[in-house]
Sequence to fold (635 residues):
Amino acid sequence: MRVLLTQPPLSTNPEVGPPVGLCTLAAWLIHKGHEVSVLDLDLAVKGLPSGQEVYRGLLASAVRDFAPQVVGVTSMFNNSLQAERLTRTVKDCDDSIVTVGGGSHFGALTLQSLRRIPTLDYTIEGEGEEAFAELLDALAAGAAVADIPRLCHRVDGEPRQNPSRGLMDLAEIPPVWPVVDGCVDIGRYARTVPAGSARRTVYIEVGRGCPFTCTFCATAPFWERKYRVKPVAALLQEIRFLHEQYGYNGFMLVHDLLTVDKDFLDEFSEAVRESRLPVEWMANHRTDINLYGLLPKMKAAGCWAMFFGIESASERLQKKVRKGLKREGIVSTITGLAGLGIASTCSFVIGFPDETPEELSATVALGAELKLLGAGMVQLHRLRTWPPAPLSRAMLPARFDLDSLRLEYPFLDVPEADVAAITADPEFFAGYFAPSTTAGTFAQMAQVELFFTHAVHMASLTVAVMSRLAGGSLIPTFYDVLARRGGITRQEMEADPNSPWPAWRALRPRLEDWVAIHPALEDWQRKLVLGAIDYEESRLRFVNSNGAERDGMAAGGEDWAAFVSTVDIATLFDHLRNGGALLPDLVSDWAVVFVQTGGGAFGAYMTDVERLPELSERPSLMATNARSAPAPPPT
Fold:
């Protein structure tokens, strides 16, 4: 049969990767003998005016050109309203076309999806490849669908869910990217990667399933908590194809928790090493899984980063949400990986129902500390009760959370009509009806998520100092800043993906306000935080100037620039990393010298201010005798 698979607009990110789920389904259907085309509207709308008519018009054109018999629509929770509209577009073009819904939203709420969307003919619960192929066979033969596992269909107008008969053998899925190359324009995705990027990244699926039982997690129960991986030979074939044909050299290994199986990691690392492909990869990990015997081999095989769900600094909340991580294990793991040259992405969930402002303050502090210890990225995410997470069935009192919707919507602006549609159906859009939290109001939690995700990324030293000085009052006094100045917006943070300055211009005044209004800070402590802020801006200025930037600097040359700091930055870094006390003698004048070290990297050094005239006579500088002030990765 002729099948069109489509994804609605998903995000405003200008760099787009091929949709892994749709492409895996496409490869399976091609393997079963069907003719498949993939229309990724998240890619197709880039550079076009936003709005419903644009993406629906693109789908209508594709339906007319390809003339499919079946259209499959995938949905994430943030774009399921757009997915719903796409099914109407299909029926408007040709009412005889069969529509099938899947993905994390339609696939988790199959019955609710059919009840809500009359233009959706079928939905598939959870894993969809085998059910979709069997449905196509039944449609072609005019046969009944009552025995197709996981399929949700209508009987006398009422949705009925067929039971599952288990999960598929992932070894039966052919290597995805070589198979779908004819129906997906992979080169168009590759061209969205900025020119000159040292690491050109793409996602590939290596397996499914996590055996742990975190109460807030929707993906583990979606895959029925069964750990599975694809054959290493097939994965290596995909990696080789994407690298040799399209220049990708960084691979995000999609798996809920890949590092559960050390034997697989060992086999995969050995295969990548033997291939001699110049590629790197990252995978999901837990800080309480011991990989120390394998890590050097993984690093040698190209492992450049690991992703961790840290969730909270609170031991009480760790137990309550069944995560169970210990602070000492978290810090030890991130530090150990950094020592091997492996970065970490650390993700936190904020806004648990009984989370306190003090616990949230500790979580933000831990995020900044991990960044200083070598984490590459720190993320904060508002708690969402996405089905089928256990918390989504806990019947927690909840109400509509417009502020979080604004942060996650496929477009920067959320039309009033879309807000009205979502608020009118709390069962279907359950994820945007969030539980209240004692940590703050919905608006405050959205600001914590947006502000500190960016502040820790761009100004980790400042946030770490703020956290150390404020302690449990960090978040309450941040709320005072919001009341005084107002919050930041997603538009400000995403104004220019190629420049940090729009975001920094929004962050800096609020950081300075925090210093000004905090009631417990002594004068030297205020100077300490303001000195850290100045350091962050000077570092951003140098790193993002493609060379020495003299504006605001005290001196500079071809590959270096220096500014006069009012804080002993090197000692400050050391004390924050090692738990040392922050004392008044940290406030003293030093010259901080930034030096390019090649490959887009840089070093930061300290020397006496009196040496600046001497340094100014040198056009090129590699400081070797100065005190080192290690800096976070470039922003």
In short: Residues 545-628 form one domain. Confidence is low (pLDDT under 50) at residues 630-635. Residues 523-543 form the longest helix (21 residues). The longest strand covers residues 303-311.
